[in-house]
Amino acid sequence: MRHLSYPLIAIIILSMGVTTVLAQVQSQFAVKDPSSAQSYPVNYSITKGTVNDMSINTGETSLIVSIQSTGDGNLTIALPRTLIDAKIGADDDQFYVLVDGADTDFGELKTDTDRTITVSFPDGTEEIEIIGTQVVPEFGSVAFAILAIAILFMIVFSAKTRIRIGQ
User: Fold this and answer.
1) Which helix (H) or strand (E) is 41 found in, with range?
2) Which of left, alpha, beta for 105 (phi over 0: left; psi -120 to 50: alpha)?
């Protein structure tokens, strides 16, 4: 009988660890660019609450996360650099994070493709706003193609004009 109790203890310890892990479930939200309707997948996990919506505010260069909190909790969100970033030239700048309009401290991990922010929020929180220096490009690939064609046209036009002037 003693040998049977060891597996039982292991199962209890394992289930306690799994319960803690399951309290913070990894999820994904599709954030749409209002101008191009392109969708960006944003991975997040939240404790003591649920995410109701995520939207881009291009005027404020921010991502607004609407939540419903059920207690003091944490939101960890992986922000794709193609969606939102904070830069000064080529260097990373600091994001500003507001919890229901109040500036707050947060933790951050950076990679080449995203910046992951962890922010604590009190019970009753409804909105977390992450403010950067840039959100989805205002001008997509079509604008880049038009710019390239315009430059090419200017080069060809100036080359032909020089030939006529020289004759």
Assistant:
1) strand 39-46
2) beta
pLDDT, tens digit (0-9, with 9 covering 90-100), for 16-41: 444 444 455 679 999 988 777 888 99
* DSSP reduced 3-state for 29: strand
Beta bridge partners of 135: 84
Residue 154: CB atoms within 10 Å: 10
> Is-above-0.90 flag for pTM?
no
Q: For the chain, which residues make up each domain, given as ranges?
A: 25-136, 140-167
What per-residue string of b and e applies to 38-68 under the rule 16 or more CB within 10 Å gives b?
eebebebbbbbbebeebebeeeebbbbbebe
DSSP 48-114: SEEEEEEEEETTTTEEEEEEEESSSEEEEEEEETTTEE-EETTEE---EEEETTEE---EEEE-SSE
Q: Using CA atoms, how far apart are residues 20 and 18, in angstroms rounded to an integer?
A: 5
Over residues 69-112, the pLDDT tens digits come to: 999 999 999 999 999 999 998 899 999 999 999 999 999 999 99
